[in-house]
Amino acid sequence: MIHDFETKVFKKEKYNFGGMDEYIIRGGRDLFPLLPKVFDGIKVIGVIGWGSQGPAQAQNLRDSFENTGIQVKVGLRRQSSSWHAAERAGFTEANDTLCEMYDLIAQADLVLLLISDAAQAQIYPQILPKIKDGATLGLSHGFLKGYMKAYNDCWPKNINVIAVCPKGMGPSVRRLYEQGKEVNGAGINCSFAVDQDIDGRATDIALGWAVALGAPFTFKTTMEAEYRSDIFGERGVLLGAIHGIVEALYERYTVQGMSPETAFKRSTESLTGPINNIISHEGMSGLYNKFECEDRKVFEEAYLATYHPMFEILWEIYDEVVSLNELKGVVMAGIRHDRYPMGKIDNTPIWKVGEKVRAARKSLHEYREVDPFTAGCYVACMMAQVDLLLEKHHVMSEVVNESIIEAVDSLTPYMHSRGVAYMVDNCSVTARLGARKWAPRFDYLLSQIAFPAIDTKSVKDNGELDAFRNHRVHKAMETCAKLRPSVDICVL
């Protein structure tokens, strides 16, 4: 059972997530005094890399371990363009907290390997032998596990191997940690996995790592389940699907005669703003219950037309992840990028209109119109992802975090503040590749299947609406709401 675990230090709590009992650790700064006990014998934590997660985790850990005698150091290649960025964050050679990458790997008791997925795949044969005997390797993504599996490779037998995977991008991990300094438990939820435990301490080290990052609650998974759900989720509703959905909606609304600004507001602004905010606080059922009369009919028609096309493409994406095709594709793309760097998507008309709309705002939350058609399409995709992951036997805590919470509490607020294109162009390389590859497919399925079904009045309800209204995910989200800190992320 992957949802139970044993801990010698922390108090685990049992919660029912939509009919499934799972154990979690509730985080909070009141647990920080336990960290020296958890990390007894660990003198140096080496954070390797300065990409999406590296800056956030290095700074959070440095703050959490202050005055404990445990040093948090950053390891980079000397020629890295990130060297000066790490120095600006206070990690320097002068204070012995900024080191050459391989030197730090050799000295650290806990090595947090946070370089890009493609880089991990390329240089792990050089990294793993340098980790000292009895140390712990920590990952924040199961990607390397999946890649090594594809080539029948395995971990060295003399180290612990764990994962702590924040359910949000690095800037959110840091932002909510800083915002939550006065609110116990404010931060980004994490999953954790133990893939190899040589001394019986791996679970508590992983839990301590999550607590030190500021996770409000931490749930157990496996590395294989994590990379499947995470890589799949990035290509799905967390990023790729939102990209495709809003582009399809924008095109539909402009064809119907709306001005570009109105079309953008009804598609993108409504989704990333009020729709997202309601789901964050009240769940999908709370959003649905706000619609009455004609608006409810519009939502339901959009939902019914969209659900099965979304399930179809999400199923295809999941199969591509499980087959390891997506993981191999990331590595191959990394090689191509040496010659052809990835371009940006922000020069197309929809995103230029978005720049004008955001520039004209008087406040971040001034647009409050909850468009029922946009909401129906978005919720249908979200529900299709939930149902597919449950069908593939992922535990409910992982399902709601990868399909709902990470979207509404981490990624989408950045989209609302700075634009969907900004989010796609500034996330991790793995997520960025997935969004660019799959977003057009979401767009096409909506434009070619869902919307024509609505226009020809051929949408039918074969029990999908009752399944949505009575779905156990709503109870799971009620449980998550009880664990949710009162702090909403503030994106400047």
UniProtKB/TrEMBL annotation:
<keyword id="KW-0100">Branched-chain amino acid biosynthesis</keyword>
<keyword id="KW-0028">Amino-acid biosynthesis</keyword>
<dbReference type="InterPro" id="IPR013328">
    <property type="entry name" value="6PGD_dom2"/>
</dbReference>
<keyword id="KW-0560">Oxidoreductase</keyword>
<feature type="binding site">
    <location>
        <position position="234"/>
    </location>
    <ligand>
        <name>Mg(2+) 1</name>
    </ligand>
</feature>
<dbReference type="InterPro" id="IPR008927">
    <property type="entry name" value="6-PGluconate_DH-like_C_sf"/>
</dbReference>
<keyword id="KW-0479">Metal-binding</keyword>
<comment type="similarity">
    <text>Belongs to the ketol-acid reductoisomerase family.</text>
</comment>
<keyword id="KW-0460">Magnesium</keyword>
<dbReference type="InterPro" id="IPR013116">
    <property type="entry name" value="KARI_N"/>
</dbReference>
<dbReference type="Pfam" id="PF07991">
    <property type="entry name" value="KARI_N"/>
</dbReference>
<dbReference type="Pfam" id="PF01450">
    <property type="entry name" value="KARI_C"/>
</dbReference>
<feature type="binding site">
    <location>
        <position position="230"/>
    </location>
    <ligand>
        <name>Mg(2+) 2</name>
    </ligand>
</feature>
<feature type="domain" description="KARI N-terminal Rossmann">
    <location>
        <begin position="20"/>
        <end position="221"/>
    </location>
</feature>
<feature type="domain" description="KARI C-terminal knotted">
    <location>
        <begin position="222"/>
        <end position="364"/>
    </location>
</feature>
<comment type="pathway">
    <text>Amino-acid biosynthesis; L-valine biosynthesis; L-valine from pyruvate: step 2/4.</text>
</comment>
<dbReference type="InterPro" id="IPR000506">
    <property type="entry name" value="KARI_C"/>
</dbReference>
<protein>
    <recommendedName>
        <fullName>Acetohydroxy-acid isomeroreductase</fullName>
    </recommendedName>
</protein>
<dbReference type="InterPro" id="IPR036291">
    <property type="entry name" value="NAD(P)-bd_dom_sf"/>
</dbReference>
<feature type="binding site">
    <location>
        <position position="230"/>
    </location>
    <ligand>
        <name>Mg(2+) 1</name>
    </ligand>
</feature>
<comment type="pathway">
    <text>Amino-acid biosynthesis; L-isoleucine biosynthesis; L-isoleucine from 2-oxobutanoate: step 2/4.</text>
</comment>
<dbReference type="InterPro" id="IPR013023">
    <property type="entry name" value="KARI"/>
</dbReference>
